[in-house]
Design a protein that fits this description.
By secondary structure, the protein is of the alpha/beta class. It has a single domain, classed as NAD(P)-binding Rossmann-like Domain (Rossmann fold), CATH 3.40.50.720. The protein is built from 9 helices and 12 strands. The strands form 4 sheets. The protein has a 6-stranded parallel β-sheet with strand order 2-1-3-4-5-10, sandwiched between helices. It has a two-stranded parallel ribbon with strand order 6-9. Strands 7-12 form a two-stranded parallel sheet. β1, α1 and β2 form a beta-alpha-beta unit. α3 runs parallel beside α4, α5 crosses α7 and α7 packs across α9. The longest helix is centred in the first third of the chain and has 21 residues. The radius of gyration is 18 Å and the shape is globular. The structure holds NADP nicotinamide-adenine-dinucleotide phosphate (NAP).
Length: about 280
């Protein structure tokens, strides 16, 4: 299969490439080759290359910085996916796009989990622009998958890497204990994407994180346990740890829709173990 990947130097893209490189013809592009905000360039490039699938791994992902650069973030996260959707439709290709739990306000009671049809209501610039991207995809093509993920880590700067470093350098770290979600290994999300293509599951929107739910505090405990790091962890509240962009208290995405398609989704603990085997060896 001929598959075009945008944002190919990003964290998720690396795992996607690794998962699908065998048996497929990949066209890898970074912003220099293909700026997804340039509508004409996207249309021309896609029509020239004629991929069967386009996997959009490009995004503006600096959640806090986005608060100050709405226009730029919206061009990349909102208009960009729209440009790709129009181009995909013009050659009857399928667009795979990645979205986020930040499309919700995060105020759902933590005993509950968000399903795909729940009412959205982003409260951050990043979330608003990512929601705009979802709408652009849906409004411009029928042949699409949108995978909403959360708490992603892999081959790039991420929470686990930061905690490994802090845990080795300090006697104590403070970690937020009132935000709930599912840490998601990029390799596992890449596998979900690949299985969706291989099994040709119905087009649409799917919640796509690792299985199980936890807090950043409990997640850190597991990181230190698995990596054998002796460091105290002090639980703190979101109010004690104010960030420019408000973090959702509830990022828990229900995966029943994806599971009903027979897609394999490992638990977050399982993903973390496999990630640490790779990360600690480096
Ligand atoms: N990381 C998370 O915790 C998380 C959580 C939920 C959802 N997501 C979503 O998952 C997806 C992948 O995230 P990630 O963490 O892998 O992102 P990432 O590592 O930040 O990679 C994004 C890539 O997009 C490229 N890019 C930026 N602007 C572009 C443009 N105009 N045209 C083409 N490429 C452009 C970036 O290039 P430069 O580096 O050169 O700018 C970078 O290589 C994104 O859609 C993100 O919103 C991530």
């Amino acid at each position: 299969m001929k598959i075009l990947i945008t944002g190919a130097n990003g964290m998720l893209a690396k795992s996607v490439i690794n998962r699908i490189k065998n048996g497929n013809e990949l066209i890898l592009t970074d912003v220099e080759d293909l700026d997804i905000t340039n509508e004409n360039a996207v249309m021309k490039y896609v029509q020239e290359k004629q991929p069967e699938y386009i996997i959009n791994c490009a995004a503006y992902t600096a959640v806090d910085k986005a608060e100050d650069v709405y226009e730029l973030a919206d061009k990349i996260n909102g208009d960009g996916p729209g440009n790709l959707a129009k181009a995909a439709k013009s050659i009857d290709a399928t667009l795979i796009h990645i979205s986020t739990d930040y499309v919700f306000d995060g105020n759902l009671d933590v005993s509950k989990f968000y399903v795909e049809d729940d009412i959205v209501g982003p409260v951050t610039v990043y979330g608003k622009t990512k929601l705009h991207g979802e709408e652009q995809v849906k409004n411009n093509t029928d042949k699409y998958y949108i995978f909403r993920t959360a708490w992603l880590y892999g081959d790039g700067n991420n929470f686990v890497r930061t905690m490994l470093k802090l845990g080795k350098e300090n006697k104590e770290v403070s970690v937020v204990s009132d935000q709930h979600g599912s840490p998601t290994y990029a390799e596992d999300l890449a596998n979900i994407i690949a299985e969706a293509i291989e099994k040709q599951i119905p087009y649409g929107l799917y919640h796509s994180t690792n299985q199980g739910y936890t807090t950043w505090y409990e997640f850190t405990k597991k990181i230190f346990e698995f990596a054998n790091i002796k460091c105290e962890i002090k639980p703190v509240t979101s109010e004690e740890f104010i960030r420019p962009a408000k973090r959702p208290k509830n990022s828990q995405l229900c995966k029943d829709k994806l599971l009903s398609q027979g897609i394999n989704i490992p638990t977050w603990e399982d993903g973390l173990k496999r990630y640490l085997q790779v990360e600690i060896q480096q």
